[in-house]
Amino acid sequence: MTRIPFQLTHAAARHRLAALVLLLASSVVSGRGTEPTRLITIATAHAALVLSNNAAGRILELHFGAVPADLSAFKKAPGREREFYPQYGDGFGENFVPDPALQVTHSDGNTSTDLLCRGQRTQPLDADISLTRLELKDPAYPFFVTLCFKTYFNEDVIEAWTEIRHEEAGEVVLHRYASCAPLLTAKAYWLTQFHGDYRHEATLAEEKLAPGTKVLDSRLGVRAARYCLPSCLISLDQPADEESGEMLGASLEWSGSFALAFELDPENRLRATCGINPLGEEYHLKPGVVFKTPAVLWSWSDHGKGQVSRNFHRWALRYGVRDGQKPRPVLCNNWEATDMDFDEHLIASLFDGAQEIGADTFLLDDGWFGNAHPRNHDNAGLGDWQVNTNKLPHGLTYLAGEARRRGVNFGIWLEPEMVNPASDLFTQHPDWAMHQPHRRADLSRNQLDLDLSRPAVREFAWGAVSNTLATPGVSYVKWDANRFVTQPGSTYLPASAQSDLLVDYNFALYDVMARMAERFPDVMAMACSGGGGRVDYGALKFFHSFWPSDNTDPRDRVKIQWGYSHFFPAASMAAHATKMGGRPMKFALDVAMSGAFGVDMDLRKLASDERSSLAAGIALYKNEVREVVEQGDLYRLESPYEKPRAALDFVSPDRARAVLFVYQLTNAPATPVKLCGLDPQRKYRVREVNLAGATGASPAASGKMIDGATLMCDGLQPSCHAEFDSAVFVLAGE
Ligand code: GLA
After folding, report:
1. Which of 196, 206, 163, 242 is CA-nearest to residue 535?
2. Domains plus CATH for the chain?
3. Is the pTM of this model over 0.90?
């Protein structure tokens, strides 16, 4: 059964733990009639998923939410409509047939499946993590499904996935194969999604769910996001509130097409069926092969969206992103400054600028490769990963050395999954690109997706990554993917297995990414996909950060960063100060400082006051802001969706330090901002920082010692009132 937790920090959690121990101690209760029902509790510090393994061996869900205080609620065994992982085709429930989590055609053509539990095991993996595996089998077929749950006790995160295998005579076709499909129970449900298009990523929208099915999905094949994140919030009983209310956050670890389907049934239960989007992705599973679905991360809280976000952030910094504790370098990128129009001399002059402002790493973006088909525009060169000898005659190692001479590290841009028809690669291997027979190639940004299901193509992509990153001096990579799939056809896969393509592609992609992380542990990596097209915890395992959007106008970035912050920690969110939108430099700097800070400006053309503002901002970020923002707890204080300004604070884990950001988006009178997360007893020295370019006098509170309780009850009044005013306060506890 579930591991007994080892350490609790809060009295409330200790109280709940006592209840949990009771629960676990009496895990066999009476079921319907006289049949015993075994309870399976999958618990974290504050949340529990309680399942029952009934006398027939059916896994039914009893509860998903707070750790229950007693067992009495579970005396009555539920009917089959509460099956945890519903299967298609063999009867169902007393009054309802749910959307199946699993639909397969067995090798003999039978389209029904029945799953009964044959065993369960919970194993502590370390002091924080436990793994529970429920082994299910179809009584009529050698067809096996394992429901898997990893609990991250302290972070309050449950990771759920499914493993499917069989020993039937031939292939089994998986039509639907959800990662999990839990049932939620409340009076009413509100769904918060994060939709958007290119340059408008992660836009928050909340709606009350009506009976029937609401699906959040993507059909992009090789990137999950762009139009919708594979992450959402479900508020129970009332709309989502920032620091109160019961809710669940869900995030799918998958970079391909996904579907998060919410079915509100006639009995007011909500089933959340989450996983790979089955559209066009029926999978042909050979005997003996284990199909492991991507996992869904779940986090429950009765302290609102804020706590769910902090749970995800803590989990991510510890387990979900690479080197979560490592400070992110201050990047200097040349994309907005030069596009593909540069040469060695120009880049070296940008290194001078990077050195002057104190950047850690210079990231050379798109345009450095291709000779027969030089990459001077997006219509040529992708696939030809050799240095363009006209632009960079001395090569990358020389360039990296020039950066190093100025005390700056060197990083590089790659797009290893793609090919331009105008490339040596396409000339030699036209069949390596995805396409459909008898159809005209559908180009997007003048390029095609390579078919990574073909082993030779996967090795080619690995070669592009490994050769480039093995170049002496390369310490950072931005991995881009600038189109999605619209013609999912493979010349490698047989006609009978064409629908395996996108699943095979994404697993091959993860294989290449995993090899990158293993072979180049010291090369930091950013996931990018035409802006924020690949922002998911499937890819982020292999990356340190992601590129949220090609829209770097700080006015819009306030909202974009706000959206992503619901699931992804600031350390993972690249935030670059640029000139886009023509906003005040201070506003651009202050917005970028609440993420993993960077700069993308033409450093040759800066006025001297701009240069010194940048240098001062970077020094401030490194000395007083970075650690608290990247490792602290985020409190979203005022939403840019509801107020004329956005305000957020980050508090260090020991609550000794905090940073407050205020961004004025429309004119409004200055009012106090109430902070959150501080130690009420502690006195903090409050200091407004980054004052170069600030308008108005520094507020009276700046420089004073104020206790946490006052800062949280009465607030702090910034001088911001006009559009694009902004303020940053650093708080240092006694
Ligand atoms: C994408 C990225 C940009 C930039 C370009 C280069 O659009 O989002 O940041 O790297 O590609 O082509």
Report:
1. 196
2. 85-320 (2.70.98.60), 331-631 (3.20.20.70), 634-733 (2.60.40.1180)
3. yes
